[in-house]
Amino acid sequence: MRSTLAPVLPATHARRPAAAWRRRPGSIALVLGLGLTSVPALGDDTRRNVFDDPFVQLTSAIPPSVCPAPPGPLLTEAQAKAQAHGRIERGTSCFQSGRCRLPNAYLYDKEIMPRVQKAVAADGRFDATTSVWALGQRRWIWLQGCVRSAQDAAALEALVKQLDDVEAVFNELQVVPGGPSSTDGGSAPASSVKP
Fold this sequence. Notes:
Elements: H1 25-37, E1 55-60, H2 77-96, H3 109-123, E2 131-137, E3 140-147, H4 150-161, E4 168-175
Parallel strand pairs: 3-4
Antiparallel strand pairs: 1-2, 2-3
């Protein structure tokens, strides 16, 4: 017995054959061409702040010829792709473990960095003797640049550590001889300074 429930489609609604794309080789080239324009060239070493991590200069007393600016959080696209999954895991694990009130630890960085700048400027000890930059990632602050003494480096680290929401401070400051230090008020002899 024949079923009368199956709809009968007019000829204008007939299905196209599955291999219709084979008859249009130009469409394949167009799709491939569009796809390749969005892929960066192989070996592209263009670096940028892909994740928009805050990176600011806190002080600038030591000339760039003695203390060049650190590169900051600049990454190639390949480096960014390699780091993306780990950043997601580290960012959300803070919230999941109950250590963060915001859903991702990286969300704190843009509000922490102005407080770091304000604290260093308000302290006033480092303006005339250091060139320091700060990088913020997931509530961690990296201090980079140059100071005149190890005591200056330790004092900057302690100052930043006591700020709200700062979980860790990494002191990557280099001691460069010459000029006064903020802690001794005079020039430190080169033999007592550790490079």
